[in-house]
Amino acid sequence: MQKSFLIVLAIAIIGALAIFQIAPDLNGAIAFFTGAIIASVIFSLQSKTPASKTNSNEPYSGPTMTLYVGNLPYRVHEGEVKALFGEFGPVNSVRLVRDRKTGRRKGFGFIEMSEAGAKKAMAKLNEFDFQERTLKVREAKSQDSDKSDNA
What we know:
By secondary structure, the protein is of the alpha+beta class. It is 45% helix and 22% strand.
């Protein structure tokens, strides 16, 4: 069974008990159906959230861009950075770079997100104060371009 059906069923039973307590002379079946109708209306209204507000676990499949983010606080976590950049568009991944020997964060990372969202994030978050640090947001350079520059 679907999770939403079970939630509506549980709320309907609770609603039926509440209605039956209010009006004990009411038939139990009528109280249950009244509770079910009220619960399904509440559940359908609650599930109609805008698509931009829902957090999907599926990665964005359109054109993406990888951003370099520098001057990050050392104590920041991937979830906090994802939430910050997620305000501008879908975020596929957040990679905060760590020192290999100590395991401490180095204060910079890379965010892969939708191209349109990345452009908005670059415009809004470059020079933005985040946890008492001023962020530096740029388009990330690929490793291939670094190798061709050195050749």
